[in-house]
């Protein structure tokens, strides 16, 4: 998925710690812009049959080089969901221009 000379990518990890996310107040994801500086919007949502809940969001500019860990701050609704549910399936979307990368992650105890 090329975007302005760079390749936007999310890290390969598909599991996150619920306890660590609540302690930090943020989810920790790996993001890479490939060989370019890219403005990126990251949204983490939980989809149910009824609604889509925004769990965490952040805007940032990636730098050239390997994927680096990024903290994506939780919203109030995200903190509530993490406190109530033992296991959550979340959809992470990283978007830069016309380039979109999606990954499903699981948050466990």
Q: What would you say this structure looks like, in words?
A:
The structure is a single chain. The chain is mainly beta and 109 residues long. It has 2 helices and 10 strands; from the N terminus they run E-E-E-E-H-E-E-E-E-H-E-E. The chain has helices spanning 18-24, 76-84, and strands at residues 2-3, 6-7, 9-10, 15-17, 26-32, 38-47, 52-62, 68-73, 88-96, 99-108. The strands form 3 sheets. A 5-stranded mixed beta sheet has the order 4-10-9-6-7. A 3-stranded antiparallel beta sheet has the order 3-5-8. Strands 1-2 form a two-stranded antiparallel sheet. Strand 6 and strand 7 form a beta hairpin. The longest helix is centred in the C-terminal third of the chain and has 9 residues, at 76-84.
What best-fitting shape do the alpha-carbon axes yield?
A: globular
Q: Hey, roughly how much beta strand do the residues contain?
A: over 45%
Q: Total number of helical segments?
A: 2
Stretches with pLDDT under 50, minimum 5 residues: none
Which structural class fits the helix and strand makeup? mainly beta
Number of strands: 10
Q: Rg to the nearest angstrom? A: 14 Å
Report the span from N to C terminus: 33 Å
SSE run:
EEEEHEEEEHEE
Strand order of the largest sheet: 4-10-9-6-7
Q: How can the largest sheet be summarized? A: 5 strands, mixed
Using brief descriptors, characterize the structure shown.
109 residues, mainly beta, 5-stranded mixed sheet, 3-stranded antiparallel sheet, 2 helices, 10 strands, 15% helix, globular
